[in-house]
Design goal:
alpha+beta; single chain; seven-stranded antiparallel sheet; globular
Length: about 180
């Protein structure tokens, strides 16, 4: 039960980790990836923008990130954010984030995938509109997370989506991201 509550807190943080109203989130002609960090204890709308990245640099940052220290710190600030690393593909408008919740002995990743999706009008009528859709999944397997990171950077989205959708579903909804 406590772990589920921590995941729900982390979910709230993650939902606030990007912005749908920011020009940077729009699909652009820029063929690059950017990333940010949200440390434990940050306000939900706060993130450190790190700039452009690639697979090798991001994996190095992922491996060096003090995940266990950060989830311990997060437990001191239950109403604040949990540790999260986010990647944005500026060419496709897709985002992938990795968050961790729990404690040193019992922890796991909450991962999110945000992508453009067409939403039909009321009762299936009316003009459809483009939204940003969020899928959240749970895993305790670091190897799986690293495979997803690799697929995301290689833009092998079919493989990425197949792998991520095999994980435990933690919820899906229209993305309501706020942090820059």
């Amino acid at each position: 039960m406590k772990k589920r509550i921590q995941f729900l807190i982390a979910l709230t943080v993650i939902l606030l980790s990007c912005s749908t109203n920011n020009k940077e989130n729009m699909i652009t002609e820029q063929d690059k990836f950017t990333w940010n960090i949200q440390l434990a204890g940050y306000n939900h709308d706060q993130a450190d923008q790190k700039g452009e990245t690639n697979y090798h640099d991001f994996i190095r940052e992922f491996d060096a990130f003090p995940w266990l220290d950060q989830i311990e710190k997060a437990s001191l600030f239950p109403d604040k954010s949990t540790p999260t690393l986010s990647i944005k593909d500026l060419r496709t408008g897709k985002d992938f984030w990795i968050s961790m919740s729990g404690d040193r002995n019992n922890h796991g990743y909450i991962i999110g995938y945000i992508y453009p999706k067409e939403k039909k009008g009321l009762f299936g009528f009316g003009k459809p509109k483009q939204i940003r859709w969020l899928e959240m999944r749970l895993t305790e397997d670091t190897k799986t997370v690293k495979e997803l990171i690799k697929n995301f950077f290689e833009r092998k989205y079919n493989d990425f989506e197949t792998k991520i959708r095999k994980l435990e579903d933690f919820g899906q909804m229209e993305s309501a991201d706020l942090a820059e």
